[in-house]
Amino acid sequence: MLHDSPVMKILLPLAQALARQREVLAAGALDQLGAAHGELESRFEALNAWPGGVASLQQAIAALPAPDCDSVLEVLQQAVEDNRVNGDLIRHSMNRVAAMQAFRAASSEAGTYGRSADLGGLDAQVSHRA
Questions:
Q1: Which domains does the chain carry?
Q2: Residues 78, 15 contacting (CB under 8 angstroms)
């Protein structure tokens, strides 16, 4: 059976870990992101430990019978898509955090030119007569 093959024992858990990371990111469940990342990292380590490296893994996939090779390629295609979406979701989250930080900085009096503004270490008196 294909799921018992060494190729699928490496690729299927990796694809599943990428799918879980996508679910966590899409749900905004950042408290679960550490566990998802840890699982994904261990799956990539297992992939990197494949004897002979990536070239050997590609040869093993190519040596599979046509229906099994097609199944493996479908799993890989879904993993590629999940990985791409994960990257997009991470970039979106980073942009959102940066926007919130900028809004917060602009909203605080210290981030503007109010009376208590930090003038970068300059001891300047601001005239209030103007």
A1: 2-106 (1.20.58)
A2: yes
